[in-house]
Structures
1.
Amino acid sequence: MSYQKQWGFLKRNFEGGNLAHAFLFSGQDIASIKNFTREFIKEINLAMPQADRMIDLGIFPDLLVVKSSDSPSSIKNEKDMMEISIEQVRDAQGFLSLKSYYGGFKSVIIENAERMTKEAQNCFLKTLEEPSGKTIIFLITSKPDFLLPTIFSRCQQFKFFKRGSEDILSEDKKFFEDITRVIKMDLAEKFAYSKNINLEGDNFSKILRNLEKYFRQRLLAKIGLPKYGGGNHTLEKLKKILKLIESLSYQSSMYNINQKMALEILLLEL
């Protein structure tokens, strides 16, 4: 089992009857965090007949998984709109209000929780603060900064790092410093940067992640949270840049796009 420290803490709290009702799991290896979450839900349902097999098959009646790809807008448009709607949150609230089929925990997993709209997050606050009965909620995200501070305050937080996490954090810090420098370049310098930068491996994704962090902070500053620093971009410009970054991130994960060209397009907007 990966993430032994997190597993041990959760299991001790469960066995001692001190398990929190809402968790925020964050990290870059989302697939591993999802597997970890499902394994823990199996652990707290060991007494239920064949719970582990039903969870693996996605048919366990006391577990609801919320995904952006299941949102009404996505079904209507036949594609993943990368948005978790307020309707989905209300469905999850209705699910949690029902009695457990097996008399155990009712569990909800919100995958890519940062995709919840602002309205969806606000709608979910009361459920996170005052859950009904034996319920447990897991928010999984690789972008915790995209969640409202009020969501953070209502969840017990766990960070999931890969091996060598100190090296990863150091590399991310360097990328962030480089990006803040690139933003101030003129067009010729930006194109030279795009031409010479190494985009092998996960480097393109790292650049997009750090750009998201940077412009998310600028956006928060614009809407009245000055601790995130200033910036010269308008609110609409910041929204446009963030939307473009999110789109490129999605396309690069789903398709074999020309990363150099994608980076050049993005740099033109900065």
2.
Amino acid sequence: MRRRWTADKIAHFLREAERDLAKGLTVSDICRKHGISQSMYYRWRQKRDPDKPDTDRRCRELELEVDRLKKLVAELLLDKQMLQDIAKKSGKPGPAASGRRLLGRALWDLATADLSPPGTVSLGAAIPAQAPG
């Protein structure tokens, strides 16, 4: 009965075969021990070098990473577009135009509401509303 070797088992076999070859065993001895032909061993070794990473797995991992990064970029572009639309509607330069964060700008607006600009003195309290005479 013929058994099917998985990619992990083949990679494990090739690493083990390299260790056995370093000990002085021959390829025919290794293949006889595991019950495979020499041509199969050489074919596997050519396809899946144990020193090189599995290119298929690496490719899948990179594709997943690219998909994840594309989603992040799409979300950021959507956020940017929404902020630009809000800035157009309000007529004031938005946080993207001024370089400040949204929260910092909102806090600044609240802190400076009903206050005169820095470095100026309010004369409204010093001058009476009605002048005598």
3.
Amino acid sequence: MVEDIDAKHSIIHLVKAHVEWSAQEPYTVNLRVGKSVGDILNRDYVGLLIKERELRTLGFVLDADDNAAGRYQRCAALFREWFPAIPDRTTVDGVITENSDKRLGIWIMPDNVNAGDIETLLSTLVPENRKALWEAAVRVVREIRQNGSPCRDCHVAKANLFTWLAWQDPPGHAPGTAIRANLLDANAPPAEGFVRWFRRLYEL
């Protein structure tokens, strides 16, 4: 479960850089998109997921926003009903736990520790030869916000990334296609922790 379509395709292309991935259904891993964190972390919905017989492994990738620890605590409180061994706290390696017949994984973007979102992680994948343009995009976003833009603090990472993507050739890549086009480096060290967690969770 992921929060939006950009997160879905970003994760697919991040992981595809490291493992074989089916481009046609059934996909290597079926990534489902929720409408919001509240939609995803809904007790009734989670209960239905866990009852699906064919589902053996459940993964949840959620943005920390302004509080990684708080977001994880909300997850742990919800999932403990079905996964009693879930840790009280997450770690930089993410969480993987099991019950009698299912596995559960939780990753809080960007790194289970810091505030931010998937765009925060993706911004660390900008290659060195594109850093000057990245720094210019960050500067422009900062200046625009100082001059009255309603962009909130929690959306700055997204604004930075999409401004930078708008300046590429061709402009306007989605984050996932930016990874596929090698505008973002899926092999950069900051991606390693997430990819390692994903591969362990789904035994890829």
4.
Amino acid sequence: MKALLFFVILFPVFFAVSQRSYADSIQALRLEKQELILGSNKVLKTEELEKIISLDFFPTDTTWIKMVTFKKDKGKPFEMPTSTDRLPKYRRVGYVYFEHKGETHQLTLYKNLNLVTAEFKNYYFLPFKDLTSPNESYGAGRYIDIDINLKKNKEFLVDFNAAYNPYCAYSYRYSCPITPKENHLPIRIEVGEKIPIKLP
């Protein structure tokens, strides 16, 4: 499952990556997700597929690959609200800070306490909601998955172009975390996934 989602893209030498190859890599991820969601009945039922014309995305914009600063601030375990009555356990691990148009913005970074295998040791959850929601992007917010060793990295790149919708954006049958209010941003993030294009 982990390999099928959009993940944060970390470039060791960011400025060495050409705009063209970067855009191609993002497009490949988008086509992969389009195939996952709409190419079979793995995610959606036939009647749900019939209502969706296509997935939709904002244009790629490399200015939204942000260098963030991580500040550790471990919180107590809590039950994350979801689109259903399911309440998975999460914990705040700290905050990430990034600059946009001369202003500093803060997002809380979480750890899913249900993911306990070695594969998910350095796996963190970064949900956010911005001013493109709910008319252009999913109303409950979008997600970015972070896979990095926070003990060794206090600064790292987060690619908002990789922001993706949970399955709840396509079907009510799924249970997905709702972005906590502390991660509602007063800005427009016009990259990443938009709400799908559906039949009228």
